[in-house]
Every structure is written in structure tokens, then in C-alpha cells.
UniProtKB/TrEMBL annotation:
Catalytic site: C469
Protein name (Swiss-Prot/TrEMBL): PTS alpha-glucoside transporter subunit IIBC
Superkingdom of this protein's organism: Bacteria
Ranges of residues in domain PTS EIIB type-1: 447-526
One cellular component term from this protein's GO annotations in UniProt: plasma membrane
Keyword field: Cell membrane, Kinase, Membrane, Phosphotransferase system, Sugar transport, Transferase, Transmembrane, Transmembrane helix, Transport
Family annotation (Gene3D superfamilies): Glucose permease domain IIB (3.30.1360.60)
Biological process according to GO: phosphoenolpyruvate-dependent sugar phosphotransferase system
Length: 526
């Protein structure tokens, strides 16, 4: 299970980049639409050409998703020298596809794929980095990257005889990968047609599942967040081949100009309701925050507002909900389950009223990739979305407030201790470190957090490995008993929460987790 969670967190490294490129495509769609921009945006104008160039850049990640995942996964999965692991994975993937190309060229009739016809209009074939090969999409990239990373972790540090020293490290990993990729390529040529048929059947099942499938998808995407397994729910659908061959995000952006110009209902043009989870992040987060604030004693309202406002804005604007959700997840997990149920129900209801699109993030996604470019012909759909969303904000508020008061849930600001929401200064923090006999770090806030976490996690000797996802620092420790409880992290406002599961620990850091992880690893390795 630890390996699965670690793999899930590694998936987020490439996935995080999709948001930016999606926004670029959204604005390009807007600024190339003559109905919105006027004659300046007509085909052939300088304005149109400039935005066509920008739009082409926005397609970079969608046109090369396989390579992005191949290179991105080792950055988190490699136990040492992640840069070398990423290069080895890229080399392995190129060799894999080159071998497939050679096999299909030499035995076209045996494998039923004739590359002489080209790959542009042939289903199941694709040119990857200029290599005509089988279209194994990101699934193939993930598998190959995982194999190469395993080889890297096992053999990168292996010492060879002095006379073969030049082949140590990266070269040794690539050498082994060469001989591994040849049989893997051959096996792929044999079994991939069957895999493609299976994917096609899965696509038909998912699409045919209707409202039940939409509700279940959004419920699991939300309720599995504490485990880190939610990446396995949304990634295969949004950027993988589970619903359409190259992922729903690419499908949406490929046709968004057509959707914007057409007056047909969006649901008829794009009949997939699987990227609506952002509604729970926007409308649900507001209701939750208001309920928490309204149930806080008067003397603590200002302090709790200082915590809730940035956490809620993070959820609403960019779609990162952990800072808010982790304030109540471990104190009252049934509130989180209720949150998942309400969010899934809201998304499914919106889908029933015709809402589809790229609504996986926060308001930035809403405006840039949906509302602004498509509002002219589809404004009524978005008005209905907002009405339903605000209604659910009220439902969230009423239910959360009732349960918090009914069961006297000790959320931040409601505890009896007077210091439970104290905002500690850097001076307090450094003083605490000195009292413990620790070395004070004269660096930035990331280094300070990293050192503070390290002490709470039992010191360098207790750290086995470390990685991160969007907002959490994920670690495996030698002795879980040496790890402090959640109060150590949350009382000092240094983290939003702590998750323990066996020897696996997650520190909920927030959006600065990549920088904190880098500082953490520097401290551990020095």
C-alpha cells in the first residue's frame, strides 16, 4: 500500500502543469473568437496569428503527455539522483518505442500494423518524439518509466570493477534498460491490441454508466484524498484513456472553439460529466468555512478568520482544498464523508442540468477555460451552475453548523485551551528550537519549516524516504513512535495537519510543499 501511495503522489508532479497550459488554451480560445473580440480576431489578422502561436504553445503538454509522465515520475519515485533517473527513463522510453518501430517495420503482417501508410490517420498508431510506434498513451509511458526507475533504484549505486568504472551510475542503468526494453517492446506488440480492446470496452462502460458513474467518480475523487489514492481516480480519466483515448482535458481543449461557436447544448457536444469536482471546492468550501466561523466563540472569531480566509481562498481560487479540509478531517472524519457526498451530489445535479467542461480546479479554471470563452452562447448553463452551487453553499453551511454544534466538535477555535489557535512568530519558533538544543537555521521560511518537521518526525535517523504531492510531505519513518502528534505541527501554524498510517506519515504543508521538501532533503542529506 505504501508503494501505491508513493506512486500516486508521484503522479501529481506532471499533472500539476496541466492547469497552466489549460488556462493558456482558454485565453487563446477567447482572444481568437471574433464574436467576442470583433474583427481584430478574424482569421489572417496579426492578432489572430499571435494568439495562434500562443495557442500552439499551450498544446505542448497535451501533445506530449507520454514524455511528460515518463520524465516526471522518476523525480518523485527515484530514491537517489532523480535527475539521472529522469534521463534514464527518457532514454528507456525512446528505446522502447524505437524497438516497437523496428519490430512493426520488419514484421508488419504478423502484428497487423503497417507503418508504411503513416500514422496520422491510423487508429492505434502514433508518432512519439518522431518515432512511429504503437499508441500506448500515458499508460505505456507510466509503465516504462516505472520499470526504468526500479532499475535505477536497484543498480544506480552498484560498484563495477575498476576497468568497467566508466559504465557505472547512469550508463549502467541505461545499459540494463536497453536489454530490458527489447523484450518489453516485443511483448507490447503482441498484447497491446488486446489491451486496446479492453480500454475501448472500459470507455463504453464508463460512458454508459450515466449519472451513477458521475456521482461515484466525484465521490471517490473526494473521499480518497486522505489516502492519496484519489490520483488514481481522476488522472486516468482526465489525462488517461479511460473515457477518451487522450484524456478528457485534451478532448475539451481540442474542441472548445467549436463548443464556443455552437448554440447546441454543451452536454450534447461534450457528453462527459467527469471534470466537475471543482464545484465542491468553490461552493462547498465557502459553506464549510462559514459554518466553522459561525460556530467559533466570539472571542476567537478574529483568530479563526485569519486561518479560514487564506485556506478558503486557496480552495476557491486555485482548487487546493487540503488546507481547509484538514482542519476538520481528523477531528471529525464523518464531516469529510458528508463533504464528499454533498460534493458528488452537487456535481451530478449540475450535470443533469447540462453542465460539462473543465471544472476540476478553482475559479481560475472556471473563468479561463469555461465561463469567459463560452459565455456568449452558453451563459444560461453557467447561471444555472451558480444557482445550484450557491444553494449547496447554504446546504453545506446548515448541515456542517448543525453537526458541529450537535456533537460539540472541537475544531480550531472551539477547543478549551486558550492557545490552540495561537499564531507563533519566527522568534517563538527559533526560541523553541534552541530550547531543544537544535541548530537554528538562518535560512528562509522553507528551511525553518523543514527543520521543525524533522524534529517532530524523530530526526534524521528516523527518516527512511520522502516525497510529496500537491500539498503534503509524504514520508516513511523507521519508528512511528518517535513522531510527534498532530498538535505539535498544527499548534505552531507550521502545518495544517498530520496523517499517520503504519510507518507512513503525511505532513499537510500547503502549496509550498515542493520548496519545503527540497529544504527537508538538504537537511537530511547533509
Amino acid at each position: 500500500m505504501n508503494a501505491i501511495k508513493r506512486f500516486g503522489s508521484a503522479m501529481i508532479v506532471p499533472v500539476l502543469m496541466f492547469a497552466f497550459f489549460g488556462i493558456v488554451l482558454g485565453f487563446a480560445t477567447l482572444f481568437k473568437n471574433p464574436a467576442i473580440m470583433g474583427s481584430i480576431a478574424k482569421d489572417g489578422t496579426t492578432w489572430f496569428k499571435i494568439w495562434s502561436v500562443i495557442e500552439a504553445g499551450g498544446w505542448t503538454i497535451f501533445n506530449h503527455m507520454e514524455i511528460v509522465f515518463v520524465v516526471g515520475l522518476p523525480l518523485s519515485l527515484a530514491k537517489k539522483a532523480p535527475g539521472h533517473a529522469a534521463l534514464a527513463a527518457l532514454m528507456g522510453y525512446l528505446m522502447f518505442n524505437t524497438f516497437i518501430n523496428a519490430i512493426l517495420t520488419q514484421w508488419p503482417h504478423t502484428f497487423g500494423a503497417n507503418l508504411e501508410k503513416g500514422v496520422e490517420n491510423v487508429t492505434g498508431l502514433k508518432a512519439i518524439a518522431g518515432i512511429e510506434t504503437l499508441d500506448t498513451n500515458i499508460l505505456g509511458g507510466i509503465i516504462i518509466s516505472s520499470i526504468i526507475t526500479w532499475i535505477h533504484n536497484r543498480y544506480y549505486s552498484k560498484r563495477l570493477p575498476e576497468m568497467l568504472g566508466v559504465f557505472q551510475g547512469l550508463t549502467f542503468v541505461v545499459t540494463i534498460s536497453f536489454f530490458v526494453m527489447l523484450p518489453v517492446a516485443l511483448i507490447t506488440c503482441i498484447v497491446w491490441p488486446t489491451v486496446q480492446n479492453g480500454i475501448s470496452s472500459l470507455q463504453g462502460f464508463i460512458i454508459g454508466s450515466g449519472y451513477i458513474g458521475v456521482w461515484l467518480y466525484h465521490f471517490l475523487e473526494r473521499v480518497l484524498i486522505p489516502t492519496g489514492l484519489h490520483h488514481f481516480i481522476y488522472a486516468p480519466i482526465e489525462v488517461g484513456p479511460v473515457v477518451v483515448n487522450h484524456g478528457l482535458k485534451a478532448e475539451w481543449f481540442e474542441h472548445v472553439n467549436d463548443f464556443a461557436r455552437s448554440t447546441k447544448p454543451l452536454k450534447e457536444q461534450f457528453p462527459y460529466g467527469f471534470m466537475l469536482q471543482g464545484n465542491g471546492k468553490v461552493f462547498g468550501a465557502i459553506g464549510i468555512a462559514l459554518a466553522m466561523y459561525s460556530t467559533t466563540p466570539k472571542e476567537n472569531k478574529k483568530k479563526i478568520a485569519a486561518l479560514l480566509i487564506p485556506a478558503t481562498l486557496t480552495a476557491v481560487v486555485v482548487g487546493i482544498t487540503e488546507p481547509l479540509e484538514f482542519t476538520f478531517l481528523f477531528i471529525a472524519p464523518y464531516l469529510f464523508v458528508l463533504h464528499a457526498i454533498l460534493s458528488a451530489t452537487m456535481d451530478t445535479l449540475m450535470y443533469g442540468f447540462g453542465l460539462v467542461g473543465n471544472f476540476g480546479g478553482g475559479l481560475i479554471d472556471f473563468f479561463a477555460t469555461n465561463w469567459i470563452p463560452l459565455a456568449q452562447n452558453h451563459w444560461l448553463t453557467y447561471v444555472i451552475q451558480i444557482i445550484i452551487g450557491l444553494a449547496f453553499t447554504g446546504i453545506y453551511f446548515v448541515l456542517f453548523r448543525f453537526l458541529i454544534l450537535k456533537f460539540d466538535i472541537p475544531l480550531p477555535g472551539r477547543k478549551k485551551e486558550s492557545d490552540d489557535i495561537k499564531l507563533y512568530s519566527k522568534k517563538d519558533y527559533k526560541s523553541k528550537n534552541e530550547d531543544k538544543g537544535s541548530q537554528s537555521v538562518a535560512g528562509n521560511e522553507y528551511e525553518e519549516k523543514a527543520l521543525y518537521y524533522l524534529e517532530g518526525l524523530g530526526g534524521k535517523e528516523n527518516i527512511k524516504d520522502v516525497t510529496n504531492c500537491t500539498t503534503r510531505l509524504r514520508l516513511t519513518v523507521e519508528d512511528i513512535d518517535k513522531v510527534e502528534d498532530s498538535d505539535y505541527f498544527t499548534h505552531n501554524q507550521m502545518a495544517h495537519g498530520l496523517v499517520k498510517s503504519g510507518k507512513n506519515v503525511q505532513v499537510v504543508v500547503g502549496m509550498s510543499v515542493p520548496q519545503v521538501r527540497e529544504a527537508f532533503e538538504n537537511i537530511v542529506n547533509n
